[in-house]
Amino acid sequence: MPESLRTARFCLAVVGYMCWATAAVFLSVLIMGVRIAGTNGERLGLAKTMLPGIDSLVMFFIFGLAGSAVFLISSGLRRGRRWSFYAAAAVAVLLIPVFLFGTIPGIFILSGILGRETKAWFKSRLAPSFSRTDSGPQALDPTK
């Protein structure tokens, strides 16, 4: 595996962990809000206007699934899957507008997967390797 692709996979792992950490923050905001406000009484009525409620639960699922998807893409890159090449490029392009925390990893991911050695590595992984010793009817003959 080319070194530039290793760097791209590392950046994808960083982005995945950042997504999971963000999901954990949204979940903890929801849990602490319910814990502080309680589940009944006047404080709950007052807290409903201040707590994110269902919004933080939705954001928890969005960031959790995004982090899982990024780790799946990184795993696909390690195995040389062609779909992961395109998915990593899409993630990198989506990260670039997210200033600072997404721009830097996005640039490293794009530069890693668009390098010459990475493209050559993917092409070599896709090229069929046929040899004369293991193909044809003689390979199926149990007497040989």
Overview of the structural elements:
The protein has one domain (3-125). It has helices spanning 3-37, 42-47, 54-79, 82-95, 103-113, 116-126. The longest helix is centred in the first third of the chain and has 35 residues, at 3-37. Helix content is 72%, strand content 0%.
What overall geometry do the principal axes of the alpha carbons give?
A: elongated
Low-pLDDT windows of residues = none
In percent terms, what proportion of residues is strand? under 5%
Distance between the termini: 37 Å
Taken together, the total number of domains comes to 1
Give me the strand/helix succession. Answer: HHHHHH
Counting DSSP E segments of at least 2 residues, the number of strands comes to: 0
Q: Report the structural category.
A: mainly alpha
Topology of this protein?
Elements: H1 3-37, H2 42-47, H3 54-79, H4 82-95, H5 103-113, H6 116-126
Helix pairs in contact: 1-3, 1-5, 3-4, 4-5
Question: What's a concise summary of this model?
Answer:
This protein is mainly alpha-helical and 144 residues long.
Any key phrases for this structure?
single chain, 144 residues, mainly alpha, 72% helix, 0% strand
